[in-house]
């Protein structure tokens, strides 16, 4: 079955990107051992000083959705909300192949 | 040093996505062993039937740029050009951390 993937974009309030990055790397640690999680990688946008991207790869969209229920995840989301400038955006994908994913 | 990353978006001519995906997975095989290449993953966009995304992670932007000179890569780019509807877009990034990248 094709793996589910997404690119998520978050725009931090001005000057809040580092704080938001800290929360996201904590989230990455929480979901790293979740069933079906292959990737959860956090990036800084090189052009936009307040933007953050995440790339996720999961066995299925259900595995991704379940991860939002992991203990600690909801708390991180609540902490992240006031740091965001606007609603996060996501690009939903299916993995075709390549290097870096088995 | 922070790793260089990018998300690339390509829009195929209507009905040409599968053909373009074949070329991109060939490109992934070519660059897989290039110096500094950690990821080169090819995706189908779930919402747009003609769109393809690639996520790449490299030790440096120089390693990425050098990969375009690999034998066979230029040929694949030439084959891909007529399959594209418009110019590819890229989002340049720096890796912060997470699961799936060492």
Automatic annotation (TrEMBL), chains A, B:
Keyword Transmembrane helix: no
Gene3D superfamilies given in the database record: 3.30.70.100
Top-level taxon of origin: Bacteria
The entry's keywords: Monooxygenase, Oxidoreductase
Location of the ABM domain: 4-93
Entry GO MF terms: monooxygenase activity
InterPro entries: ABM_dom, Dimeric_a/b-barrel
Protein name per the record: Quinol monooxygenase YgiN
Taxonomic lineage of the native organism: Bacteria, Pseudomonadati, Bacteroidota, Cytophagia, Cytophagales
């Amino acid at each position: 079955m094709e793996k589910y993937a997404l690119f998520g974009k978050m725009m931090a309030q001005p000057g809040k990107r580092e704080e938001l990055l800290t929360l996201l790397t904590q989230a990455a640690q929480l979901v790293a051992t979740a069933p079906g999680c292959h990737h959860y990688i956090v990036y800084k946008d090189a052009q936009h000083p307040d933007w953050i991207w995440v790339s996720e790869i999961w066995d299925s969209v259900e595995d991704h959705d379940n991860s939002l229920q992991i203990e600690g995840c909801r708390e991180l989301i609540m902490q992240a909300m006031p740091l965001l400038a606007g609603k996060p955006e996501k690009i939903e994908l299916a993995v075709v192949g390549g290097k870096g994913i088995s």
